[in-house]
Amino acid sequence: MADWIAIGTVCAGYVLLMIYLATGVRIIRADPRARPHRRRPERRGRREFLRQVIGTYVGGWLLLMVVIVGYYGGLARHNPSFVLHAVTGTLALMGLTLPLFLAASWAATRRARRPARPGRRPPPGPGT
Question: What is the pTM of this model?
Answer without folding.
Answer: 0.54
